[in-house]
Amino acid sequence: MTCLHLLLTLVFAVSLGTPVEIQRPRGVPLTKKQFYEESKPFTCLDGSRTIPFDRVNDDYCDCKDGSDEPGTAACPNGSFHCTNAGYRPMFIPSSRINDGICDCCDTTDEYNSGAKCENTCKELGRKEREVLQKMAEITKEGFLLKQQLIEEAKKGQQEKQSKVTDMQENKKQLDEKVEALRTVKETAEQPEKEAKERHLKAWEEQKAAIRLEKDKAKMAETFLELDDNADGFVSVSELQSHAELDPDADGTLTEIEAQGLMGGAEQVDTSTFESVWPKIKDKYHSEVSREEADISCLEPAPVETPPDEVKEPVVDNDSEPYPEDDISEEEDEDDEDEDDYHEDDDKVSAQPTIKTPEKTHEDEEAMPPYDADTQALIDAAQKARDDFEEAEKALREMDDQIRNIEKELSFDFGPDAEFTYLYSQCYELTTSEYIYRLCPFNRVSQKPKYGGSETNLGTWGSWSGPENNKYLLMKYEQGTGCWQGPNRSTTVKLTCGKETVVTSTSEPSRCEYLMEFTTPAVCQEPANIDPSPHDHVEL
Amino acid sequence: MHKDALHGKWEHRDIHNIYGLYVQMATAEGQIQRSGGVERPFVLTRAFFAGSQRYGAVWTGDNAAEWDHLKISIPMCLSLGLVGVSFCGADVGGFFKNPSTELLVRWYQTGAYQPFFRAHAHLDTTRREPWLFGPENTALIREVIRQRYALLPYWYQLFYQAHKTGMPVMRPLWVDYPKDTATFTIDDEFLIGSDLLVHPVTEEGSRGVTAYLPGAEEVWYDVHTFQKHNGAQNLYIPVTLSSIPVFQRGGSIIPRKDRVRRSSTCMENDPYTLYVALSPKKFAEGELYIDDGHSFNYDTKKEFIHRSLTFANNALTSSNLCPDCNFLTSSWIEKVLILGASKPSKVLLKMDGKETPVDFEFDTSMSVLTLRKPGMNAGADWTLKCLMKESFVNIPVGPSYTTALISLRFIPFLRVTLKALKM
């Protein structure tokens, strides 16, 4: 009987041209209508009990699963279906029925609450169709762009691959060249070293000879000075006049001590004086002038010391008047020297003074230049060294380049390498306060708009999208640390768009940033959507 | 604070917090004036003084996400309730630092059973919205929030009492059981009104709690399982993360709005479920208070409903405590649960001189009688009568016993006859 009624209703409705509403209890979707037959008792959909049909939607919860009250709020876990003709049908929790808030656009959820709801389904449907259409357009164009990107990426990939192989070839050659030059260098350096040593030795000998000469002259001078009575002999008494020669430092030079210095003799002549001279020459103070022997010791040593013999300049506390906490004992001994120095000379010397023992204060002579042969060897060795260093540098550069390209090749640019074009680009977004900069596969940073330093919001970590498509999210991590908080990190969400641009930046949780980024590289193949406004009624 | 900081003869430290009271008072009065004297304000304050309860709610200030701070929220609010400040609570989850998931869930469970229930945290803490901890924990938190919302009619009527009499809403056990010395040191358990006993789990990794059920003559019903327990005992309760030990006192009637809603405003016209917990003497009483929830009309125009609910002699009656009040509600009674009941043969609703039968179900194992959809308006006068079978108790009897009984009935007749016969 009911079937006939239904058929008649259908025919009637169809002839009137109205959309057909199949009779069913409030809130029951068409797919479940068969469980709600009016003429029979109702069995809860979880099978827990059976109740008379008049207890369906009677505003009392009888079934544990809420299936007897789809259209009222009586059960805590019920589900209400709104048809929303003109838009999309929806399920809402039954607890939202008659609560005073309009949840379904067709107002069917507020039928007994006094709330005034308006049917907005048509409007919502229209808006959604617009949005879908736009999205479809963008997806289509974006997808085409993506194809281009994939093409270019493929080409670029091949180029880079071959480049790397070439470079590795070159590197091998460079390697060999470097090794060859190294051998040349070492071969040249050997004779150079020998020649230099010879020269130096000669110079040392020369210096020694000069020193000897000087010493001899000094000795003669001293003899003349000591010989007060000019009798060609230096006597004990004449020697005694120089108390500074006192060997035991008791202030007086006794006859015995003086005799000891003279080797037991009463007097010496110039030749025998030669044996006395070594014993007194260190302490002897000339009568002529009190040489500022101290100062000459502190003058900077001759500049032309061979490079491989540079003495460590002791940087003393020249700029401080009295060195207080000096570590080396040496300097303590020289304290007095320094005091004298500063008393006599107010100028503070900026140069580090070289404390060398007194032996060099007499020789102010420079080492003579190398002879022609030695110089030639030196030049040859230097050239070999220069060539070698140049080659080595070139090798290092080649290495770096190879590494860079290999690094670039190692990134995961997507299943079709569609993200390759992002690699060396940076994209900026300016907000009211900051300029955010995203350099994909590299880093994210933030810089204040009106001056200030850059803050690192994270360096490239990995793709971190959901399992079905990890290329929807990028993670940048280990940025600048936050006070008592995590190191800053950024998640970049990628959506399909025609342009490649950062659309927003936010900080949903402390020091954890979220950037929204559109790029054609994530556009999917557009499906054939038929944006039909009408719900097909199933019969 | 120095004792010589004086205002006239008043030591400053005695009146220091009056400033806080004045600030809250001024804010509340400003809000009232703004609505033309019609709308009740809500003002939350951290500084308060004696009398602040007239102006709004208070909270315990900047606590931290630590188990000790969760534990101490109970004695803090109990103390404040005793001095008149009932509307008290602590920041759920702790203000400083980040709570572990277990701590957050337990804090929601404890806070939902305290008068002022709010989750709050320092700006620099990690996010702790209740849906960020996985579906199981979201479900646990959702469940306890639903429990609180269902009890809002009870909370509301207790606040009406506090407003009228000053009795604390959340009170220590000894307030209702002053002769029971075992209650004197309890500060991990409390009463809401006289009828709800709460012992929330506040220990990390707890596997069980021991709750003291006071009153030698009382019985206490577990509100989740309806299991009955005798009073004056330390009851060990095994717990899981979902457990919140709450008991209803035998002899009380608590109205609940069990329908799930998104906000209390949405609950305005929802029906009530009455939970009648019978005392050992099969007696229970409770109240129902309803007003519009936002205006002063309850005071200026007596627009409220105040009813007394009594269960005695197998009948539940609703009588009007304020006959000259006038307030109408569309809320009705959708269910009555009687705990500790016996099975009736019939249940009748007596209202407006008419009697209608009411469907019911009886759970023998827990002795719970459920009356299905009596349907009367919450503001009406009504009685629900449970008709018990008048006759013999259902003892299975043998023929000899029946014969003996029958013969007993005849003895008086026999005596009269014998007398008549002068035997």
From TrEMBL, chain A:
What residues does the EF-hand domain cover? 214-249
Annotated ranges, domain MRH:
424-525
Per the UniProt entry, the signal peptide is: 1-17
Question: Taxonomically, which superkingdom?
Answer: Eukaryota
Positions the record marks as coiled coil are 150-220, 374-408
Question: What are this entry's molecular-function GO terms?
Answer: calcium ion binding
Region Disordered, as annotated, extends over: 290-369
Q: Quote the biased-composition stretches of kind Acidic residues, using this chain's numbering.
A: 315-343
* Annotated pathway: Glycan metabolism; N-glycan metabolism
Gene Ontology CC terms: glucosidase II complex
Q: Please provide the record's keywords in A-Z order.
A: Calcium, Coiled coil, Disulfide bond, Endoplasmic reticulum, Glycoprotein, Metal-binding, Phosphoprotein, Repeat, Signal
UniProt-listed GO biological process terms = liver development; N-glycan processing
Subunit structure and binding partners? Heterodimer of a catalytic alpha subunit (GANAB) and a beta subunit (PRKCSH). Binds glycosylated PTPRC.
**What is this protein for, i.e. what is its function?**
Regulatory subunit of glucosidase II that cleaves sequentially the 2 innermost alpha-1,3-linked glucose residues from the Glc(2)Man(9)GlcNAc(2) oligosaccharide precursor of immature glycoproteins. Required for efficient PKD1/Polycystin-1 biogenesis and trafficking to the plasma membrane of the primary cilia.
Name of the protein this chain belongs to: Glucosidase 2 subunit beta
What organism is listed for this UniProt entry? Cyprinus carpio carpio
From TrEMBL, chain B:
Q: Which GO terms describe its biological process?
A: carbohydrate metabolic process; N-glycan processing
GO terms, molecular function: glucan 1,3-alpha-glucosidase activity
Q: Which InterPro entries match?
A: GH, Glyco_hydro_31_C, Glyco_hydro_31_TIM, Glyco_hydro_b
Keywords, A to Z, come to: Glycosidase, Hydrolase
> Glycosyl hydrolase family 31 C-terminal domain location, by residue?
166-254
Q: Give the UniProt entry's GO cellular component terms.
A: glucosidase II complex
* Similarity section: Belongs to the glycosyl hydrolase 31 family.
Name listed for the protein in its UniProt record:
Glucosidase II alpha subunit b
Which species is listed as the source? Cyprinus carpio carpio
